[in-house]
Amino acid sequence: MRVLAAMSGGVDSAVASARAVDAGHDVVGVHLALSRMPGTLRTGSRGCCTIEDSMDAQRAASALGIPYYVWDFSARFKEDVVDDFVAEYQAGRTPNPCMRCNERIKFAALLEKALALGFDAVCTGHYASIVTGADGARELHRSAAWAKDQSYVLGVLTAEQLEHAMFPLGATPSKDEVRAEAAARGLTVAQKPDSYDICFIPDGDTRGWLADRVGAEPGSVVERDGTVVGEHEGATGYTVGQRRGLHLGRPAPDGKPRFVLEIRPKDNTVVVGPKEALDVRSMAGSRFTWAGTAPVDPSEPFACDVQIRAHADPVPATARVADGELVIDVDEPLSGVAPGQTAVVYVGTRVLGQCTIDRTVSAVPAAV
């Protein structure tokens, strides 16, 4: 099988590529250049697609004896990930750029080009497993290493994309084992630190980065009943669940801290309230997909677990499709759910599907 190995320059993708070679596949390595301005991406241990990462990937490919190329996806990355990130914040939502990158770059643009060039599959270093279900269709499942499981960020994959995906690390019990294997193979990335945070915000200052691009207009911070309790320096600098940096002029009557409950971009208002008001009992999104075979009748409520962040614990829920939305009702109130986040639905270890959250229903009435 002809396999295109996406090599980020990290240890996971290097070992995944090595395992694809060991399995007898015809493997070609490719690194994605996501910016024509290297200084706009994080470097060292805090990057994922920088020039030094490209060099690390090239050294790994050379050690494995496979061809290696760098593909320029910078224009697509800016449009589908960076511009989307800005637009979501302008709309008062909290986006996850890593989800968009997996969806639109690594498993849309990359896979599309790979298939056009005659490759059969794209191989990555994600910690997730693909299992063939009873109906013969491929299913996405959690990896064996729960602490390193990355099935959440792959929840955006469709059935067609799963047909051409390969995750050689899915059954690996620990990251330490991957590093040990890399060292044994003589790969120089064996001890390279993991990447984290947003790659296109070099200094990690999301508020400042957004202010430079969309401006920062002062506005009111209000309680849920409309009472003005402070002023902000730009609504895009806040996210649901935030506590620090509110600088409120009026303390709450009960003396307890307030948290950001909602961002209202139309009137440039930030809504705050007590921590318990962050609890939601339901969430819904019209932008949903199924990872593999969909439920026979998705309009019929079905039991599941839902996960709303990459490192969050899954919680029991009931889901259904109604009026063009995937509606998810949690068994117990879930705190800090924001529009723009991705809700990934699991049945056991299987990723059933996902939606981008458009709206939530509070578990606490506004009068409280």
Automatic annotation (TrEMBL):
<feature type="site" description="Interaction with tRNA">
    <location>
        <position position="126"/>
    </location>
</feature>
<keyword id="KW-0819">tRNA processing</keyword>
<comment type="function">
    <text>Catalyzes the 2-thiolation of uridine at the wobble position (U34) of tRNA, leading to the formation of s(2)U34.</text>
</comment>
<feature type="binding site">
    <location>
        <begin position="6"/>
        <end position="13"/>
    </location>
    <ligand>
        <name>ATP</name>
    </ligand>
</feature>
<keyword id="KW-0067">ATP-binding</keyword>
<dbReference type="Pfam" id="PF20258">
    <property type="entry name" value="tRNA_Me_trans_C"/>
</dbReference>
<keyword id="KW-0547">Nucleotide-binding</keyword>
<feature type="site" description="Interaction with tRNA">
    <location>
        <position position="341"/>
    </location>
</feature>
<dbReference type="InterPro" id="IPR046884">
    <property type="entry name" value="MnmA-like_central"/>
</dbReference>
<feature type="domain" description="tRNA-specific 2-thiouridylase MnmA-like C-terminal">
    <location>
        <begin position="281"/>
        <end position="357"/>
    </location>
</feature>
<keyword id="KW-0808">Transferase</keyword>
<dbReference type="Pfam" id="PF03054">
    <property type="entry name" value="tRNA_Me_trans"/>
</dbReference>
<dbReference type="InterPro" id="IPR004506">
    <property type="entry name" value="MnmA-like"/>
</dbReference>
<dbReference type="Pfam" id="PF20259">
    <property type="entry name" value="tRNA_Me_trans_M"/>
</dbReference>
<keyword id="KW-0820">tRNA-binding</keyword>
<feature type="domain" description="tRNA-specific 2-thiouridylase MnmA-like central">
    <location>
        <begin position="209"/>
        <end position="273"/>
    </location>
</feature>
<dbReference type="InterPro" id="IPR046885">
    <property type="entry name" value="MnmA-like_C"/>
</dbReference>
<feature type="region of interest" description="Interaction with tRNA">
    <location>
        <begin position="148"/>
        <end position="150"/>
    </location>
</feature>
<dbReference type="InterPro" id="IPR014729">
    <property type="entry name" value="Rossmann-like_a/b/a_fold"/>
</dbReference>
<dbReference type="GO" id="GO:0103016">
    <property type="term" value="F:tRNA-uridine 2-sulfurtransferase activity"/>
</dbReference>
<protein>
    <recommendedName>
        <fullName>tRNA-specific 2-thiouridylase MnmA</fullName>
        <ecNumber>2.8.1.13</ecNumber>
    </recommendedName>
</protein>
<feature type="active site" description="Nucleophile">
    <location>
        <position position="101"/>
    </location>
</feature>
<keyword id="KW-1015">Disulfide bond</keyword>
<keyword id="KW-0694">RNA-binding</keyword>
<feature type="binding site">
    <location>
        <position position="32"/>
    </location>
    <ligand>
        <name>ATP</name>
    </ligand>
</feature>
<dbReference type="InterPro" id="IPR023382">
    <property type="entry name" value="MnmA-like_central_sf"/>
</dbReference>
<keyword id="KW-0963">Cytoplasm</keyword>
<feature type="active site" description="Cysteine persulfide intermediate">
    <location>
        <position position="199"/>
    </location>
</feature>
<feature type="binding site">
    <location>
        <position position="125"/>
    </location>
    <ligand>
        <name>ATP</name>
    </ligand>
</feature>
<comment type="similarity">
    <text>Belongs to the MnmA/TRMU family.</text>
</comment>
